[in-house]
Design goal:
CATH superfamily of the largest domain: GAF domain
Helix content: 40-55%
Largest sheet: 6 strands, antiparallel
Shape: elongated
Structural class: alpha+beta
Strand order of the largest sheet: 5-4-3-8-7-6
Number of helices: 7
């Protein structure tokens, strides 16, 4: 027979998976909603959420709702259902590398995931002080340059830019990647906000737009 410790560990694992599945199905949700959806006592739900948050499987927002965190999203990248994302990464990586080398700033590829933008791939910039570490991170669509790009309604628009939208010292320039009549991804340039003032980024904006167009051509040629 299984020991009490084994049974407890198994039950704990089941509850953890129940919470992750509830967040995947419901999107942002508060403690009470998650406890009710999983039929787990509120105190136990909170305890599991604290562990998941510490391990970055879950993120707690300023409004006290929870969403899937970077580690869960990284796992999604490698699943069979993410085949389209894998293709995007494969077709985009060398273009990101070229953009990073041309501008010196870090280049990223992002896709829409619900009401967030998920960073899938990157090429680090060549400057000593550069942006790193956002692959697998999700940021809001609303109020961000990458979000504005992913929500574009018309192709061939200007690049989108923002300073301090997600982190106070980070600047961003983003452009949508279109395939047919829809936006499938966005390319972004991220770096210290001090280097992303409008007067300093004209060439970078053009480079981001050119990269988006180049990725579009690669995607069409591979179809």
């Amino acid at each position: 027979m299984a020991s009490n410790a084994t049974l407890h560990a198994s039950r704990s694992a089941e509850r953890t998976l129940d919470l992750l599945e509830a967040l995947a199905d419901a999107g942002p949700a508060g403690l009470t909603k998650l406890a009710r959806a999983t039929d787990i006592p509120t105190s136990t739900t909170l305890r599991h959420l604290r562990v998941l948050t510490e391990r970055r499987w879950v993120e707690r927002r300023e409004d006290d709702t929870y969403v899937l965190g970077p580690r869960a999203l990284r796992l999604a990248i490698h699943t069979e259902t993410a085949a389209t994302w894998s293709r995007l990464r494969a077709q985009s990586q060398h273009h990101l590398q070229h953009l990073a080398e041309e501008t010196g700033e870090s280049a990223y590829l992002a896709v829409r995931s619900g009401d967030e933008a998920l960073y899938l791939a990157t090429a680090e910039g060549t400057k000593t002080i550069r942006h790193v570490g956002w692959v697998g991170r999700a940021v809001p669509l609303e109020g961000t340059a990458v979000g504005e790009a992913l929500l574009e309604n018309e192709p061939a628009g200007p690049p989108h830019r923002n300073l301090g939208a997600v982190e106070i010292d980070v600047g961003a320039i983003s452009a949508a990647i279109w395939l047919g009549d829809r936006v499938v991804a966005a390319v972004s340039l991220l770096g210290p906000a001090s280097r992303f003032e409008p007067a300093d980024t004209h060439d970078s904006e053009g480079a981001v737009l050119d990269t988006a167009r180049s990725i579009e051509l690669s995607l069409r040629d591979s179809s």
